[in-house]
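INTERNAL AUDIT FORM
Audit reference: QA-55
Scope: verify that the stored structure record matches its stored sequence.
Auditor: D.O.
Record contents follow.
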Amino acid sequence: MKLLSYVSVLAIIIMCSFSMKQNTKKVKDYLSVPGPVSFDNSTYNLSWSSHPSADYYKQEYLRSNEKAETFTRMLMIEALNTDMALKDVVKAKTDELQQRKGSDAVTNYQVIENKSKGEYLLDFVISESAGNKMSVVEWNAYRYINLNAEGKGVLLFAYSRRAYGNNVSTFLTSLKTERVKDVNYLAAYRIPGVKISE
C-alpha cells in the first residue's frame, strides 16, 4: 500500500464540495458500489467520480431530479489508501473547518466518536456569501470508517444538504431538529461494500 505524506492527505481533504463540477461523460464507478444507492427514502445515482491521485477516489451521488450546481441533497463516498489513523484524518478536516471560521461565521462542527465500532462522525455546517447576504448554506455529516478489515485506509460515507438564497434562513431553523435525525440515521446506516477498481 503506497503511503501518502501528511501534506498530500491534507491537500486532498481540503478539496471542498463548493468547487464541484458536473461531468457530462459516462461516469466511472471506481469503487464498485452497487447502485443506485438508497438512503433515507430517496434513491441516489452516481453522478460524478474522480481519481485525482494514486491513492484517492471520490464519488458523488444525486437524486434524479437534481444537478451538482444546484443540489439540495447529495451522497458522497470516498476511499483513501493511507496508513494515517482515522483520528488524524478527522483532525485534518476539523483543522480546516477551524481555520474557515475566520472567514465564515456560520461554520460550526462537532465530532462524535463511536469507540465500539472504531468510527468517527463529523457533523458540520459551512456557508458562502454574495456581498452581505448568505447565498449558500451547506450542512454535512461525514462518517469515517476503516477501508479494510486490517484497519488500514479510510472510507468516507457522507450526506450533504444545501439551501440557497431566500431558503437559507428556513433551512438553518429546521436544521436544529433535522440534523439530529440525519446524524442518527447516518450513524446506523449500512454502508455499501467498496471494491476499488482501476
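Auditor finding: record pair retrieved intact. The domain at 6-11+46-188 is CATH 3.40.1000 (Protein Transport Mog1p; Chain A).
Action required: none
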